[in-house]
Amino acid sequence: MTTAQPGPRVEAVLFDTFGTVVDWRAGVAAAVDSFAERHGLDLDGQDFALRWRARYQPSMEPVRTGAREFVSLDVLHRENLLEVLGEHGIDAGTIEPGELTWLVEAWHRLPPWPDSVTGLRRLRERALIGPLSNGNLALLARMAKNAGLPWDVVLGSDVTRAYKPQPESYLRAVSLLGLEPGEVMLAAAHNSDLHAAASAGLRTAFVARPSEFGPGQTTDLEPAGDWDLVAGDLVELADRFTGPAWSVDRRGR
């Protein structure tokens, strides 16, 4: 695995969040199981989480194409939840609104992977770090508070007004940091995200998360591109990162 980073030095490392930094499947499944127990429902949390997640990308596509005005991921998650409940024969109208909100906000309470917090703390010593996620700012800020993620900055899709893999989602985040694309690295467990980031001029790091979708996962098991860095987890990524220790005095760039 390469550790060299030729070209402009990387000043910031931004992260895909769902699946790369936090374990959405475990977190959502646990919330669904708790919800089902309270309401006497026959639901399998793991299956429900996968079905809910399956609507993630399709629900954003009308926003990406301009067929729908921008709405936050919290709104899309709630709409998708109602659809999955309907598939299970559950009328959401019979559920107290506060209970539905609690379940939607399971995405705010996702647990970090075991290596995430340690890896991020180490990496933060050498670069600015933050999420570059389709999550909205409130979701990402609450997730960080709950999971102990030591971000320097939180940039939500409602700030960039774009959903990945739209180029604007990457480039507006870079611009908000006052940097150039080549000075920012995206770390992600998803090759498609890295392809889009590279096309926008960002540096790239692949972090393997082979159990994100469970034992039957068949995609993103290994890097599928010439990424700048490849690591098995965030601790290894921090060890391989060779950018400069962060300093507000950047006159030596």
UniProtKB/TrEMBL annotation:
Keyword match Phosphoprotein: no
Protein name, as recorded: Haloacid dehalogenase type II
Entry keywords, A to Z: Hydrolase
Coiled-coil regions, chain positions: none
PANTHER family: HALOACID DEHALOGENASE, TYPE II (AFU_ORTHOLOGUE AFUA_2G07750)-RELATED, HYDROLASE, HALOACID DELAHOGENASE-RELATED
Top-level taxonomic group: Bacteria
Pfam families (alphabetical): Hydrolase
GO MF terms held by the record: hydrolase activity, acting on acid halide bonds, in C-halide compounds
Lineage: Bacteria, Bacillati, Actinomycetota, Actinomycetes, Pseudonocardiales
SUPFAM superfamilies tied to this protein: HAD-like
Signal peptide per UniProt: none
Cited Gene3D superfamilies: HAD superfamily/HAD-like (3.40.50.1000), Putative phosphatase, domain 2 (1.10.150.240)
InterPro entries given in the database record: 2-HAD, HAD-like_sf, HAD-SF_hydro_IA, HAD_sf, PGP-like_dom2, S-2-haloacid_dehalogenase
Statement: the UniProt record of this protein carries the keyword RNA-binding: no
Family recorded in the similarity comment: Belongs to the HAD-like hydrolase superfamily. S-2-haloalkanoic acid dehalogenase family.
